[in-house]
Amino acid sequence: MTAVLLAEFGGEERLVDAIGKLREERIQIVDAFTPYPVEGLGAALGASPFPVRAAMLVGGLGTAGLCWFIEWYSATIAFPFDSGSRPHNSWPVFPLFPFEFGVLMAGVFGLAALLWSTGLPGLNHPFFEARLSARASQDRFVLAVAMPETPDMALRLRDRLIGLGADTVEEAEL
Amino acid sequence: MSAIVSGAQPLPSAGDAVRAQKVERLTHVDTIDAVNTLVSGPLLDRRRWRRWWIAMIVASLLTVLFFGSMIYLFAKGIGIFGNNSIVVWGYPIANYVWWIGIGNAGTLISSMLLLTHQHWRAAINRLAEAMTLMAVAIAGLMPIMHMGRPLYFYWLAPYPNTMALWPQWRSALIWDFWAILSYLLFSIIFWYTGLIPDLATLRDRAITPGKRIFYGALALGWRNSARHWHIYQTYYRTMAALATPLVCSVHSIVGLDFAASLMPGWQETIFPPYFVVGAMYSGFAMVVVLCAGVRWGLDLEALITTRHFEIMAKVMLMAGTVMFLSYATEWFSAWYSGRGVDRRFLSFEFTGAYAPLYWIMIFCNCIAVQAFWFRSARRSLPAIIIISILINIGMWLERILIVWNTLSHHYIASMWRLFYPTLWDWFVLFGSLGFFAFLYLLFARFFPVVSMHEVKELVQREATS
């Protein structure tokens, strides 16, 4: 777990301004918690959606390929049924099942990757111990910065956060 | 470790907002807390639900009728319906096409409006997505009810079995099975993913332990982390991008159930796109009715505004006009083909035994909606609701007439026979409406009907601009 100072801001602009200024001062930003997605903030904090995209692509195409193979195998080898003299390998109608199921499985794989990337489900995270955590889902913007090593520096950082417009500052662990 | 070391504002308790909102009713939303109050307030307050209970009793009675009819059907067989040896498809198939059409619209509306950056969708997308889940689930029951041996429906899935049988991949009915199954499960994931941040808000605003546990478990521990939002949004937008072609393919496949046959009135290349537009049309009409009901029941006038209804009226006007064009194309193609059977079929539509219903359908689907050319009609909620209900009736008539007209008027005159619905046909139709209402009322009681995090973003953006 990382010791942090949580600073609560009343608006998106104040949070973004504070992050910019703290970065210039080389203060380590651990995370930010916002009631709705703030454009560009997650990427600026180093989050990468690549695993989700990759999982959706691989899961979708892999499933579609498997579905096509099942169709071909069952229609030509396992159960070559003559339906109105149409060819056993009726490839023009084969894409429908792989497409439908492939899209579904892209969603399933993406969801699994989303949960894996975000560490969810995680009902017992230490963030929930902080009183400010409940406001982050409602109407406040919470910034987590790494706790300095000494109490003096922590005090100075707290004052700096209030100077940047934080309404409340709280010690917590993430 | 957690301690407030500095604070300029006191932290309100979780129930403060809920208590505060009982004092005054919000008529305008200009802060993100107002969004929380409006949407989550009713879910966390036990005393507002008298209207809900009245609706629930009616819906429950119809649900009992639906499942009672289903049990009787499974005991007695499909002879209890009006189907006969000529008109082998009846109400269940028409109901199926109608419900799947409504179901298609929810995800289509949500995903298309997201991809085209229509921010006003935030007020209606959750309602529409929930409508999809329930409508598709009911639609999926209809073909099973229509089967002579419903206990074997799983034979549509490919699995190794002692009979060494495999599905017939060249059959449109197999495509249907996969389309419905995939679409239903995909829609559940899409809906639930969109719901997670709002469930976290409810978790944090809940004042009773039971509700905190209920919403907390469903929120999966969502913390509103900016990193998580970034990954979440990528996933959600990709799902929306996948949903749009999926929805179009699903209803196109339903259209192919008919178009892949050799019957007059069915064997038409226009069917897949025409079915997709019809689905969007009936779905928007159903969304309007649901929005009006939810808005009234949960006092959401400040969130679902007249402007939303006006935009939806414009979309329905567009869809209704395309439907009119599609019907006209069908009529022209039947006449222009010069084939006797197609011309006889066209004549049967306008002058045959079902002609009164056909004219009513044209009025409901093509004529009534033209009122939306006038701004006064688009801004009148009663007018929009009445026209939306007419569209839903018209679209159901379209579905049943597609089945009846063609099957009642085969190639040879010795096979001309009409369909007469039985009481059980009506029980299943109205019972399914009741079951839909039952599920929808449960959704409205326990889940936020408006996407809070999206509306909050919208409110903040408007406040900033």
Describe the overall structure.
The complex is a heterodimer of chains A (174) and B (465). With 174 residues, chain A is of the alpha+beta class. In chain A, 49% of the residues lie in helices and 14% in strands. Chain A has helices at residues 12-24, 41-44, 50-78, 96-118, 133-136, 151-163, and strands at 3-9, 29-33, 141-146, 168-173. Chain A has a four-stranded antiparallel sheet with strand order 2-3-1-4. Chain A is rod-shaped and about 85 Å long. The N and C termini of chain A lie close together (5 Å). In chain A, 44% of the residues are buried. Chain B has 16 helices and one strand. Chain B has helices at 16-23, 32-44, 50-76, 91-115, 125-146, 172-205, 209-219, 226-259, 271-297, 306-337, 340-351, 355-367, 375-378, 381-408, 423-446, 452-464, and one strand at 3-7. In chain B, helix 11 (340-351) packs across helix 12. The interface between A and B is large, with 83 and 75 residues.
Average per-residue pLDDT of chain A, rounded, comes to: 90
Structural class of chain B: mainly alpha
- Report the oligomer: heterodimer
What percent of residues of chain B adopt helix (DSSP H or I)?
Answer: over 70%
Number of strands of chain A: 4
Give the biggest beta sheet of chain B.
none
Class inferred from helices and paired strands of chain A: alpha+beta
The main pleated sheet of chain A reads as:
4 strands, antiparallel
Rounded radius of gyration of chain A (Å): 25 Å
Radius of gyration of chain B, rounded? 24 Å
What is the 3D form of chain B? Answer: globular
**Largest beta sheet of chain A: what is the strand line-up?**
2-3-1-4
Low-confidence stretches of chain B: 1-15, 17-23
Task: Return the string of H and E elements of chain A.
Answer: EHEHHHHEHE
- Strands of chain B, total number: 1
* Total helical elements of chain A: 6
What string gives the helices and strands of chain B in order? EHHHHHHHHHHHHHHHH
Low-confidence stretches of chain A: none
Helix content of chain A: 40-55%
